[in-house]
Amino acid sequence: MVREIEISDLAKKRLSEINDYILENWGISVLQKFNHKLESRLELVRFMPEAGRLEIKYLKVRSIIITGPIKMYYKVFMSKIVIVSFFNSRMSRSKRLK
User: Fold this and answer.
1) Which residues, at least 6 apart from 73, have a Cβ–Cβ distance to it below 8 Å?
2) DSSP secondary structure string, 55-86?
3) How far apart, in whole angstroms, are the C-alpha atoms of residue 72 and residue 45?
């Protein structure tokens, strides 16, 4: 079953911060490559929601690596997948889902 993907406000904010950082530090070509990898991971999760690692069991939050230090956190529901947040592994663990 293919599910709809919904992106939370927090995930949108984090993704915007990541995009700004990549653009400022590595330029447009690296940003385009990152966004291409993000799109491919979104498609993978859409068709195979269990592809990601079960990261926080009691919340049923999964994660999948987008590239290098950047992970995407998501929850799977019957009819949709909600992207909860994005995380740069260089950040402290307590900031992952805040």
Assistant:
1) 11, 55, 61, 62, 63, 83, 84, 85, 86, 87, 96, 97
2) EEGGGTEEEEEEETTEEEEEEE-SSEEEEEEE
3) 10
Place of tokens 């999948």: 64
What separation in angstroms does the CA of 62 have from each of 28, 37, 76?
A: 29, 18, 8
Rg (CA), the chain: 13
Q: Which amino acid is at 19?
A: N
Rounded average pLDDT over 74-88: 94
Domains of the chain: 4-89 (3.30.2310.20)
At residue 91, the pLDDT reads 52
Position 92 confidence tier, pLDDT thresholds 50, 70, 90: very low
- For 54, which DSSP code? E
